Amino acid sequence: MKGLIFALCVLMATPLFAVQPSEVLSDPVLESRAREISKELRCLVCRNENIDESNAQLAEDLRLLVRERLLAGDSNVSVINYIVERYGEYVLLKPTLTGANKLLWVAGPLMLLLALGVGIGFVRRRQNETTIDELSEAEKAHLESLMKD
């Protein structure tokens, strides 16, 4: 009984793909290419889920579009470029390192370095401000009189 429960848990934990049987291409080579491409494209409804695993209607439309382009003879790169032209670069799960994306990729480390520089400058300035001056003779005498009481 425990083995059956374990087997059911394992089956339920495996990822289920949203590709419908009606979408699957008869050519296994084209189908594997379609799956590869689908894993690189983001579902615009679900966010951060590829269209191969998404059940959204738009993801299904994108899967069908990928398969149409493959049947038309397009290469994997040209299929992805076609979809990026239609839906924008956001559709890619792994964005390219061109244009404005360079700025976004570099901005994080630059901000970290800037923050470290400001922090180090603040600490150094603070250390210079906290120097202790010697007590004058009058202050020493007053301190000694307070300590005697």
From TrEMBL:
The chain crosses the membrane at residues 103-123. One of its GO terms (molecular function) is metal ion binding. It comes from the Bacteria. InterPro entries: C-type_cytochrome_biogenesis (IPR051263), CcmH/CycL/Ccl2/NrfF_N (IPR005616), CcmH/CycL/NrfF/Ccl2_sf (IPR038297). Residues 1-18 form the signal peptide. Residues 7-147 form the CcmH/CycL/Ccl2/NrfF N-terminal domain. The keyword Membrane applies. One of its GO terms (cellular component) is plasma membrane. Keywords: Heme, Iron, Membrane, Metal-binding, Signal, Transmembrane, Transmembrane helix. Belongs to the CcmH/CycL/Ccl2/NrfF family. Possible subunit of a heme lyase. This is Cytochrome c-type biogenesis protein. It comes from Pacificibacter marinus.
